[in-house]
Amino acid sequence: MKKLRFAHLASVAALATALNANNAFAFDEVEKDEIGEIVREYLLANPELLIEVQEVLEERAAQEEELARIAVIQSSAENLFRDSADPVLGNPQGDVTVVEFFDYNCGFCRRAMADMQAIIEADENVRFVLKEFPILGPDSIAAHQVALAFNKMSPAQYGDFHTQLMNFDGTANEDVAVQIAVDLGLEEDALREVMADPTLSNPVQRTYELAEGLGIGGTPSYVIGDSLVPGALGVDELRARIAEARAAN
């Protein structure tokens, strides 16, 4: 029945298009008005066709958006998956890379920490790339600046720093992040010297650009293979996406 309705609608649409085509048909103004009224009456009598058309248009737009997103992922692969400034957890040589865009003050990111840890513990071939993506205000920006400096000074300890700051019960800010870094053995003056480097925030700027190109507006968001996986969807969904990416390799 739906195919039949679409066939009727296609005929009506073709007729309407013909009315607007230059010299396509030699309709006079009276005939155009009559045909226009037929189209109008048909659509008024079958309004569900407009809903169906809208659904088709939305589906087509979603497909085009997904294709555009895949193109961005593929063209930005170097910055997305292999930016040397990004912290890497899990197996650095893993056969599947999970890129996570996160903010230290994002409650969903904090809850998703357990998902990442469970996957790393259970799958020795997963590589997690952490994209510092402070979008929740000045405190987040300051905390991520400390994180970037910490990773630059002591990348082997970044996992411990990241875990402690993500699990902090309260707002992650500069003071909290610096204290965690000092507790892990860094000298505060040396840390603040690295933090003052104006080029330190360059990775964050690259992450903002990647997020804009991918249409990422919230955290956590993941890129796995050629797919964008928004939101804290849970460990089972992440494992399924990792399996899909592995099968596609």
Overview of the structural elements:
The protein is built from eleven helices and five strands; from the N terminus they run ααααββαβαααααββα. The protein has helices at 2-20, 29-45, 48-75, 77-81, 107-122, 138-153, 158-166, 174-183, 188-195, 202-214, 235-248; strands spanning 88-90, 96-102, 126-132, 221-224, 227-230. Residues 1-7 have low confidence and may be disordered.
In brief:
The protein is of the alpha+beta class and about 250 residues long. Helix content is about 60%, strand content about 10%. The protein contains eleven helices and five strands, in the order ααααββαβαααααββα.
Structural class, from secondary structure content? alpha+beta
**Largest beta sheet, briefly?**
5 strands, mixed
Span between termini = 41 Å
Number of strands: 5
Q: What portion of the residues fall into strands of 2 or more residues?
A: 5-15%
- Looking across the biggest beta sheet, what order are the strands in? 1-3-2-4-5
